[in-house]
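Please describe our next protein:
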Amino acid sequence: MIEEGNARSGVYLASGRTEVREVLETCEAIQKRKFNPFLLDVERAVATLRKYFSRWKTFNDHCLDARTLNSLTEVVRLQNSQLRYQSSTLYTDPKLLSDKLRSLSVEGLARIFLKSWHPIVELEQLATTTVKEALHYWDTLLPFDVRRKRLEAREACSPLALDLESLESMGITAEQTFSESLEKFWMEMRRHAEQSGKLSYWEFVKRDSFEETAARAYFVSFLVTYGYATLEKREKDLFLTPHTRRVRLDLGRLVSFPISLKPGERR
């Protein structure tokens, strides 16, 4: 009889280990995001652990029970996190919502609609002030024939060529082309940057007259655009770094960098 009872107890414990391991494997799969946390019946899993807890005798059985209980706690935490997220987004299970709507009568749906319907009402009213403003607008409005003339297309001016005086004011003489002037300006920039490798933009561009400052800024813009120099901004200062040869630029990454030049402005 004792042997038979021990045999039955052994079978019972073996069956209990199998059930507990199944709960543990399900919890671990949920923690790895393989299943929805709510696919596990937590109440049934707790009942399984409670059923066999008093029967465990070996150290390994107690370790299995503790691991399962810990994993089950993590699943409950995941369920709680999902519920919090769904409640924050006003989530409702589509199946439950569909079943609830189908169970409602037409009168019930109408009541729900009336409770949730919040129309926006706007009230406009004529007052003495608004009437005066309207009269003033129409009294001061020019006739349509006068206003239409402002919209009529006018003949555009033809492009004009620069004369020698304008070219000389920009530092370009009749004896040299624009490319030659640009190369000369590039060599000047390289001489100024021989020691430190870079120079201040405003110290290089700024001159006594606004016209000369604008002309030098004009040449600098071409040198930077063509890859003969680099313009960088550090806090509030601008610096130029001339290159010994032209650098090929990535046309897709070019950006516009506007710099304000005002007559009489000191930098």
